[in-house]
Structures are given as structure tokens and as C-alpha cells.
Amino acid sequence: MSVFFTVRRWVYLNLHDDNYRSFLSTCINYFLITLIVANVGAVILESVQPLYKEHQFWFNLFENISITVFTLEYLLRFWSVVEKDRSRSEWAVRWQWVRSGGAIIDLLAILPAFLNFFVHVDLRVLRIFRLLRLLKLTRYFVSLQMLLRVIQRERGAFQAVVFILSIMIVMAASGIYIVENKAQPEAFSSIPKAMWWAVVTLTTVGYGDVTPITPMGKFLGALITILGVGIAALPAGILASGLANELNQRNQRLELEFLEMLQQQGLDIFNDQDELEKLRQRVGLTKEQMHDVIIQLMRERQYADHQGITCPHCGKGISIQKDDRDE
Amino acid sequence: MSVFFTVRRWVYLNLHDDNYRSFLSTCINYFLITLIVANVGAVILESVQPLYKEHQFWFNLFENISITVFTLEYLLRFWSVVEKDRSRSEWAVRWQWVRSGGAIIDLLAILPAFLNFFVHVDLRVLRIFRLLRLLKLTRYFVSLQMLLRVIQRERGAFQAVVFILSIMIVMAASGIYIVENKAQPEAFSSIPKAMWWAVVTLTTVGYGDVTPITPMGKFLGALITILGVGIAALPAGILASGLANELNQRNQRLELEFLEMLQQQGLDIFNDQDELEKLRQRVGLTKEQMHDVIIQLMRERQYADHQGITCPHCGKGISIQKDDRDE
Amino acid sequence: MSVFFTVRRWVYLNLHDDNYRSFLSTCINYFLITLIVANVGAVILESVQPLYKEHQFWFNLFENISITVFTLEYLLRFWSVVEKDRSRSEWAVRWQWVRSGGAIIDLLAILPAFLNFFVHVDLRVLRIFRLLRLLKLTRYFVSLQMLLRVIQRERGAFQAVVFILSIMIVMAASGIYIVENKAQPEAFSSIPKAMWWAVVTLTTVGYGDVTPITPMGKFLGALITILGVGIAALPAGILASGLANELNQRNQRLELEFLEMLQQQGLDIFNDQDELEKLRQRVGLTKEQMHDVIIQLMRERQYADHQGITCPHCGKGISIQKDDRDE
Amino acid sequence: MSVFFTVRRWVYLNLHDDNYRSFLSTCINYFLITLIVANVGAVILESVQPLYKEHQFWFNLFENISITVFTLEYLLRFWSVVEKDRSRSEWAVRWQWVRSGGAIIDLLAILPAFLNFFVHVDLRVLRIFRLLRLLKLTRYFVSLQMLLRVIQRERGAFQAVVFILSIMIVMAASGIYIVENKAQPEAFSSIPKAMWWAVVTLTTVGYGDVTPITPMGKFLGALITILGVGIAALPAGILASGLANELNQRNQRLELEFLEMLQQQGLDIFNDQDELEKLRQRVGLTKEQMHDVIIQLMRERQYADHQGITCPHCGKGISIQKDDRDE
């Protein structure tokens, strides 16, 4: 029975624990990433009819292998997750894991294939659902998680933008419908039809399949474009400044941790490369970023040294000379 | 007569007071939001001729109900607003409310329908005016108000951009008119006609219905595009950084209020979840944001504790040791 | 002779001195702004052939009046500018003014019209040169000057972007020329011709008059678009963050001046609305912005008051209690 | 033999040392920049068939001269680089240089031409490789290096964006393929073909050669466009804020160096224009930027003077009066 627990713990470490790093766990990660990417490639290639017909057997074989691997992965994760918190009931831990984002994505990646046994859906649509396996990649990429976190944090701003954009699309479509309806009764036959023009224009895609042709329509179109063109580009701006903030905050966090360690242990930390490396990996910065931070810290420290007193929150010296105060 | 005042106060609380939250006021808000959205949907669907002809009766009924509800809402608001400031004359308070932005939007939402009794305007145009009811939604969305505030605050920058954009459009249109006039006498017959090309190009919409065809025209077009392409995207950038600033300032404001409360009441606030919740709602942050702020504060506080003295404006310890000074 | 100097001074104040504000100087400014805008409108309308032929007389009359006014303005400015610095030689001051940006723009606005007497250029091209009068508006709009200053300050970044964009256009054009040359020998007959496609694509204008049609060309085109799409939008981002910075710095400057005045004069400044108004106009902020700053200052001040000591550079209290130190 | 070392040192200074500035080294730099630009011009012009056939001799001559010059440059750099560090073995220094970025670019600029002797590749493709000489320009432009550094530093963010963009392109292409496949079996015959539409739409290029035509396809297309339009513009935003940061950091570094020099040497530095000029060139700021920094420093310094104590890291006075503490 002790073997059972040892195996479960070993499975848990390899599949669940991000901080556990062995040769095997790295291999498993790379194998799963490769399999996911290959699955997406297969879905794309299967859509090319001649290719699919010729190699139908291999495509199906690959899909069956993939489904088996992903199902096995899900079951092993489900079984081993209890090692996470042994103080609670096994099924409580499992149920909590099943409801987590990662587990739902894992389930979505295999469910459509099994659904096929019960309900017979269009094969083509079913194949597309396999693309959901792409989402499994989120687990392996920190930068992707960061982007999602920014999207979540700035969702207030996004909400406002989507709202404003919707208003602008409705207003623009209604205006152009009134003006162009008589000249182009086909393309602008109703507001919903005019909305296609509004979306294509306000996002600056501008296919040119529908354009205003009356002078009045062109004037209104120009006005709408000038006023609205910024709104569609807003989310990118918000995301960009959000990402920049996120990265800045991470750097500041590292600085703070560095400073705390420096004050507790003195300057020796600069010689203790292993400690630095551990800290770097814990915080998740690149070697280059760590280097920048240390260079900056050392310069400021040096600078503060011949000033006397150091301010702990910015690492800079304060010019109130010690002797001034003690007299 | 006391009943009269009680009813008026009750109407006031439900319709005007944002801080008053009862089950009824929430219901009223959701009902009005739904009605506004449904009105916009009706306007869009009515423009589809076959659909409108078939269900004309129901569309008209819905419009009449809407108009009644919005008129009632306006009158009740007008009547009850006097409760806002009972020290001033009733009509002075009402007149002030009538001139406020929210009241003007409310009036614009119902006026076109009543206008129809006196002046007989084109039904289609009249229907479009109903879209103004969309603006009533501003009252219910904080993020939308924030966006409008940013637009208002950065209007200096927008003014400059619109100005520069106008200059660029005029210059681009004139240049391309000179160069392309002979090759395409129809599309570039005059500067106003060439402006359509200029707007479509500088905003990067690029329908492709009018493009330069002479080598000289293509060279000038390429030059204009490269130089001007940034200007049209400027408003988005300004808005994005403005929004980011606005959100940052809100967070800082919360932090300051938290710090003040912490200093007045000690650390107990961390156990007083109700106080925190009240504060959170007052400032209007999400639970997640509040969580981030508290985590950050606690870490800094902990850090300052073994330093001795805390700087109240950044919550960080100052390394001037107490004993240093007392000696 | 004293009358001569008085008149010259009076002309100087009205035309040159931005801080001098009389009813007349305001009228002159608005008259000149209107005239400039009307001139641009005339140039645009003249390009519409039927309109020009019908009203030729009035167009020419308006042009002659405009030229007279602008020439008079230039001469009066030239004559009166000596009042700016009476310690130096009159002609030295004038020569300095003639070489200034504003004077060159003023000259460019009238020169083409006079050039016509000597050299007979194409009337249509000559008319376009009148658009240079638009630049005279820069004098009257602060926000426009700000934008130009940002462009000048960030010119290092712009230089890098234009450079990168040029490289990308050359590379993209060469690549697509190699790949698409055989399939579309007309549209991609040489690299210069392929550059039209490259510019239209990398700026995301995308007219669609020239597109890759071979699978290889589409793949290369997609790759180029994804990699290059950001570069063209860079200038807008740089400008936007530059403008945001510029506006922030202005606000900080006002805060600093406010703080200095507060420390020299005490809190009475809050009651001295005239002083505030003067300061506001001197710094060039809007009333709303000033309001924000004062509100913020007062809150911080109030907060610092029950803390004891105030830090002059951020207006916040420092928690080192006085009694702590005096013991 | 001493002459040999003197010559080698002289070659080293002119070709390698950026801080060495003589008339000759400036001439060499400008000559090489001109030659690189002329080479690119030649490649572009050679692609115009009639032009190339007429002047074939001159084009070939120019290419041969260029190849000679660039080869000579490479050999001289290779030979003289040992002067950089005379404490190490000559070949170790040379090998280190050969592996550096600049040397690899230099090699890429000449290698394709020599390759032609051994392998006979298509002349047209070979010519395009000459465009790699453009990269040699990086050595001469600081702003370009800065942009590359920003791209490298923010590569985490770029990675996330490319990843998200790939996911969106695959998802969008699959969706539109399902919906439009029947209506347009040619343009949307498979997912890879639909990806052309997805790229063109998500980057907002929008040629219009392929557009959805079914109502369902238009609805899906509109949804994809609205959601995805921001992602393609993200890299620009990240680059822009990265560049702004980079420029800010450079300014702050200058300020810090200025402050250190001021504290070591007193205020005399303001009179010592030569020192300032040297510092300015060392840091690489424009004269205008230096001016701004000094103005700001002087104002803050003046302000601090009547406050008593100065904080060295922000140059502002601290209001804790000296007498308060000494009592």
C-alpha cells in the first residue's frame, strides 16, 4: 500500500507540481506540448479534402492515439491531485480540481470525441472542436497567463470599449442606412445589413465590398470613420499599457525581494550566485532582467554608501549627515 | 400631507439616489436597462421591411409602452428631485436638474416621439432618433462614465489631433488631386472628391474603390500613407493612456483611504470585513482589486515593522533607527 | 515723434504680445483665424470646376483681399517687432524675427501669390500653395504647438521607426517580387512596383488593387503582414505617450508653482481667487484641471496637518512625531 | 615592427573605436553608410528589367567595387580587432569578434557574392541577398540599436502576442471555413486557405479579395474582427511604451550622473560648459534634452536652498528644520 502512495505522489509531482523539475517531468511537458501542436496541425490538414482522403487511416489513428493520451492524462491528474492537500478528503480535493479552469479545459479537449459515441454530429464541426485542445497550452506558457490576467484586470475598461463600440456600430449603421438606402437598396436594405459595413469600417478592415456611393453617404462615412477609428484600436492600447504595467510590477517585486534579502544577509548575496539563481527562478524573470536589476542596485548602493543613511524603499541615501543629528 | 412627502422621498431614493440600494431600486434599474436595450433592438429589427410589415402592430404597441414608461420615469424624476436639497426652492432644484446632462438625455429619448404629433417628419428618420435612448445607459455604467471623463479631460490633445488630421486630409487631397486629376478625371475631379480617398487612406480603412494609378500618384500616396498613418491612430493611444491613468488614480485613491483608516483604527481593519466591503463599494473597486491592494499593504507593513518607523504616504519603513536619534 | 513710438508699441502689443489681452487684439486674432480658414475653404471650392467658373470673380476678389490683409499683417509685424527688445539695434531684432519659424510661415503664405508676377506657373499648382496659409494657425493653438514639440522631442524614436519601416518595405517588396513575379508579371514587374503593395500592406491600408495570388505569395504576404503590422502603428503610440507625458509634466509644473506660492503666502491663497486665476492663465491650464489640483492639494494638506511634519516635495506628512525627536 | 603595431592601432581606432573621433574616421563612416545605401538602391533598380539591361555593365562594376570594399573592411576589422584587448591571445580576441553580432552581419553582407563561385544559384535570388547589407547600418544608428534592445527586452510580451494571434488565426479560419465552405467552395476550400482571409482581416489590412458573403459568415466575421482587431495592434503598443521607457531611463541616468557630479564639484559645473558638453556626448542626449534637465535641476536646487536640507535622490529639500532637531 505504501507503493501505491509512492506512485501516486510520483505521478502528482510529475503532472501537477510546477516547482518539481526532473528529467521525466520535462519530457512529459514537451511531449504534451508537441502532441497538442500536432493535433492542431492535423485538424488544419484534415480540412484539405484530397490530403484527408489519401491519408484518412493515419489521421484517424493519430486522433485515436491523441484521445487516448489526453484521456489518460486527465484520469491520472484526477487520481493524483489528492496529494496536493492530504489534510482534506480525497474527493473534496478532486471535486475542487475538476471545477478549476485547467481541468475544465482538459475535459473540453477530450469530451467532443466521446460525445460522438452518443450523438452523431457533423464530422466537420466535431473536428473543429478539437481545436479547443489549443487552450491546454495555457498551462505551459507564463506570458500567456500574464496576458489573460491583464485582460481580466482591465475588464472594466474593455467593457466600456465594447459598449461604446456597440453604440457606434448601431449609430453608424442607422445613419448610413438612412442615407444610402435609396442609392443601394441591396447592400443597405436594413440596419442589420448596414452593420456589416459599419463593423468593416470602424475596425479599419475596409474590404471595399460595400462602400457608400452618394456624396452624402461618403461625407457621413468619412465623419464616422474619423470619429470612430480610434475606438476599435482602444483595446490594443489598454492591453499594451496593462502588459507594460504587469511587467513593471514584476520587476519591482523582484527588486523588493532582493532588497529584503540584502538587508538580512548583507552584501554577500552578490557572491552567492546559487541563491540569486534560485530567487530568479522563483520570481520568473529572465537572466538579463536580473542582471539589469543587480547592476542598478549596486550603483545605487555604492552611491548611498558615501552618503551615510539609506532609504529602504528606494535604496537611495538620505543626505541628513549622521553627525548633524548626534550633536 | 406627510404621506405625500414620504412617497416623494421613497420615489427619490429609488430613482435618484445611487447609494440607496433596495430590492425594488435594483429591479427598477434592471427593468429600465432591459427596456432601453429592447428599444434599440426594436429599431434595428423594424428596419427589416418584411419583418416590420408582418409584426407592425406589435412593434407599435411596444413603442407606445416604451414611450409611456420613459415619460413616466421623466415626470417622476422631475417631481421627486426636490428631495435632493430641501433647503432650496423646489423649482430651483428642478430647473437645475432639467439642465443636467442626464435629464437632457432623458428628454431627448422621449421628445422625438411627441414631436410627431405636431410636425410630421419622415417615419424612418424619426425611428432612428429613438436610438438616442441608448445614451440613457450611461447612467448605469461606471466604466462608460469613466471613458467620457477621460475624453473630456484629454480634449486638448484630441483638439490637436483633429486639427492635424484635418490639415493632413486637406493637404493629401490637394496633392493627389493635382497628380491624379488627368489620369482619373472622374474619381479625382475636385479636392472635395479627393478628400474621400484621403480619409479612407489616412484612417487605414482602404476600401480600394478609389486608388492612385499613375506612378507619381502611387509615390505620393505611399508617402502620405507612411507619414499620416499614425495620426489617425493617435486618439486611441491618448484614450488608452488616459484610461490607464484614470484607473491608476482610482487605485491610489483607495490606497490612501485605506491607509488613513489603518492609521486611525490600527490593524483591526483587516478583521473587519464589513468595513472593508463598505469602503470597497464606496470607492467602486472590484473585489479582486481590493484584494491586491490589501496583500500589497500587508507585505509592506510587515516589512516596515522590523524597520521601526513608517512613512505614511507610501507605507514603507524609514531606516533611520530610533536609537540613532535619541542618543 | 512720440506718437510714432506710441503707435508702434500699440501695434506691437496687439500683434506680437501673447500676454496682452484687449478687446481689439482678440478681435484681430479671431478675424485672422477666420480669414485663414476661409482661404482654405476657397482653395477647396475653387477646385470644383463648375463652381469656380460661375463665381470666378468673387473667388479672385477674395484672394486679392486675403493677400492684401496677410501682406499688411506681415509688414506691420516686421515694423513693430522692434518693440520687443529696445536695447538692441532695430534691424538686428527684425532680422532675428524674419528668421523665426512664425515669420517664415507668414512669408510662405504670401510669397507664392507675388511669385506669380515674375514667373508664370501652373495656376492649379499655385492655388495649392495657398494651403500653406493653414500653417499660420499654429500660432493660435497651444495644443498644436504641444504636438509639434512632442514630435521634435521624440524625433529620435521617429527616426528609428522610419528607418525600420524603410527596411521592412524594401525587404517585403523584394520578397514578394521574387515569389509573385511569374504569376503576376504586370503588378510585380520590379521591386519599385512591388513597393506599392508593400506600403499598402504594412500600413494596413490594404486597397486590394494588388494582392498576392500564389500560395507561396500568400504565405509570404501573411508572414510580412503579421511581423510588420506593428511598425507602421508605432509613431502613433510614441506620439500618444509623448503627449501624455507632456500633459503630465505641465500639471506637475503647476503643482510645484502652487506649492511654492502656498509656502510663501500660507493658506490664504485658497481665498485669493484672482491670484489663482492669474497663475492658471500663466501656466495655461484649463479651469477644470486647476480645480483637480487644488482639491488634491487640500486633501493632502489636511491629511498632513494631523501628522505633524510636511514633506515639501510631495505635500504629504512624515510620521516621525516631533515629540519622538525632542525627547 | 613598431610601425606595424602603430598602423594596426591606427586601423583599430578608425574602424572599431566609437569614442575615437578624427576627420578620417568620420569620412570612413559616411563613406560606408553611403555605399550601403547605394547598394540597396542598386538592388532595387536592377529589378527594373529595361534599366538593368541597358546599364548592366555599370551595375556589375558597382557590385564588384562594393564587394571589394566590404571584403577589405571585414579583413581589416578582423586583423585590427586584437588591439581591443592586448592582454589576451590575438586569435582568441579575433574569434570572439567573429562570433559577435556585428561581425556576422558583415560576413552575411559579403558571403552570398562569394558563394556564387561555388554554387550557381538563381541570379535574382542572389541579388536579393545583397539587401542583407542593409543590416550593416545598425552599427551607425543609436536609435536603431535602442529599438532592437526594446524588442529584445519585451520579447516575453511579443511571444504572448504571437501565440495569441496564432490561436486567433487558427480559430477564425476554422470558424469561417465551416460557415462559408458551401457558399464559396473555392475561396474557403480548406482551413489553410481560410487562414489567408483570417490574417488579412485580423491585421485589419482587408484587401477584400476574399470576404464572407453568407449572413452567418458576415456575423461570424464581424465578431472575429471586433474581438481580434486589438491583438494585431498590440506589438506596436508594447514597442511604443517600451521605447518611451527606454528614453525615460536614459534621461534619469543623465540626471543621476549630473547630480553626482554636482555633489562632488559644487555648483561650478554650471559654468563649466566643456564638462557638460563632454558628459552630454558620453550619455548621448541631444542638446535640447540636456538643457531641459539643467533648467529643472537649477529650479529644484534653488527651491531646496531656502529649505535647508536636500534629498540627494530627488534634489528636493526636506522640511525638517535643522534647529528642530538640534534642540
TrEMBL record, chains A, B, C, D:
One cellular component (GO) term of this entry: voltage-gated potassium channel complex
Transmembrane segments: 20-45, 57-76, 96-119, 157-179, 191-208, 220-244
Cell compartment(s), UniProt: Membrane
Domain PLAT: 1-25
Predominant cellular place of this UniProt entry's protein: membrane
Sorted UniProt keywords: Ion channel, Ion transport, Membrane, Potassium, Potassium channel, Potassium transport, Transmembrane, Transmembrane helix, Transport, Voltage-gated channel
GO biological-process terms attached to the record: action potential
Annotated membrane topology: Multi-pass membrane protein
GO MF term (any one): voltage-gated potassium channel activity
Family annotation (InterPro entries): Ion_trans_dom (IPR005821), PLAT/LH2_dom (IPR001024), VG_K_chnl (IPR028325), Volt_channel_dom_sf (IPR027359)
Name used for this protein in its record: Voltage-gated potassium channel
